[in-house]
Amino acid sequence: AIVGEIGLVGELRGVRQLPQRLAEAARLGFKRCLVPRGALKSKERSFDGMEIIPVRSVEEALEAALLK
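^ that's the sequence the OP posted. Answer follows.
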């Protein structure tokens, strides 16, 4: 899953209600979720058993999504 807003130059920006969105993605069975770097307040890299991968841009998101 990917959660965030894409800016005009490809940056990934934060969205409201991120914990609720992550909980819903985990409930739907997603194992990994790409989120905007800095969107999470903690340094946690997992949420309800789902791996959280922070990214800055669409380019980073594509690299992270295609590597695993």
